[in-house]
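Internal ticket - ligand job 433, s-citryldethia Coenzyme A:
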Amino acid sequence: MTNQGAQSGGMARLQLPNKEVELPIVIGTEDEHAIDVTKLRGESGYITLDEGYRNTGSVESKISFIDGEKGILRYRGIPIEQLAEHSTFIETALLLIYGDLPTADHLAQFRDMLIEHENIHEGMRHCFQGFPPTGHPMAILSSMINTLSCYNTDVLRMEEEGTFENAAARLISKIRTVAAAAYRTSSGMPLMYPDPKLAYCKNFLHMMFSLPNRAYEPDPDIVRALSLFLILHADHEQNCSAATVRMVGSSGANLFASCAAGVCALWGPLHGGANVAVIEQLQRIHASGTSIKELIERVKRKEERLFGFGHGVYKNYDPRAHILRDHAPKVLAKLGRQDPLLDIARELEEICLSDDYFISRNLYPNVDFYSGMLLRAMGIPVNMYTVMFAIGRMPGWIAQWKEVHDNQSRIYRPRQVYTGPPLRDYVPVEQRA
Ligand code: SDX
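stdout (structure tokens):
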């Protein structure tokens, strides 16, 4: 199998009440089998129904691969464990976007573009003065990522060669500047300008924590931890936010607008917002003395969810959670810090993974369960956790959008089964009950 497309797996026969329909079987690189139902409606009048698309492939994609049963994640075929150990965030971003690890020259050229485009227009900086300090950073991020469309009009249409990479570099570079500005706005501190002498992660930390009169010098382990965090969050098949970016991009919407929509989808507590909900849940145990046992009983009574546990695809341990679980204590130890929430998280995990309620439902820790510990060790405030997820996921969204654009995909337009009222006439207001 070359990295070309799905193989044909013969035909599936669907026996309907009034006819038999033959549908092609397609087989993916990792032996995933699917029935291509493109012709089903035309040949039978039937559509398929699959609430939330949980059993429906929306696309053939070459970007990332998850084996939920085995707890496997690969970016363009490379295991996440190897990228976590050997790669950098920008190298991983280019791997996801272009399909192969970049050459040294391409990496250097792209890094130069990131430096060239790290700043935002002064008009955008003034926008931050209009946000209240209580404004949620995810609201600010989604609106300001879309606002980039106003200030980067030269890269909205992907006609000329090179326009796409220019737009991608601007998004990957400027999301740091916008994210740090969102934090500075919420904390009443002056916005910091990016420093062209600093590499990607260090420059972000500089914009987050430096003061006009005092530069922030992060511990190298914190910089490395941030790079690891971003690599682990970079892409994840057709998750809610990636599917949103593809949906919006399929209408022909530009890259900035499509990724702004991805930020909005990520915000939800069932998706990227879970990393905040995890910390809040652990803090409730630590601060109010709610016992782990009480929390688990509440979860079993379905009075609350155990955030950071469970996954729409993984029915095993999320490999990213494994890496974060092992890395967080190393960073804390190197910094000479303790985090009581990490001890609570580990105890909670141990209890759940031996409790049939969780085992029988295949509920294991996901990427969000330990990611907050790493962010706490870096000094990132909780209200910025999902913003950090968005910075990591940006290359994945860009890669997913590019796949829609390059394949000249048709506009995404799911069907439905209508169950509303049958035909009826308009009733004038005076005749209504
Ligand atoms: C991310 O899709 C991606 O790839 C996402 C992501 C990415 O990188 O893009 O991996 C990032 O979003 C990770 C997930 C972060 N969300 C959370 O941690 C929120 C808590 N998790 C759940 O809400 C839930 O597990 C989901 C939303 C993640 C997945 O839900 P599913 O697959 O739809 O599971 P389900 O609702 O069908 O639940 C099956 C059973 C139910 O119990 P029963 O009705 O069978 O009795 O499991 C229970 C659910 O009540 N269940 C949970 C639970 N998750 C599922 N019970 C308690 N706590 C949970 N977290």
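Auto-summary: DSSP finds 18 helices and six strands in the chain. The mean pLDDT is 95.
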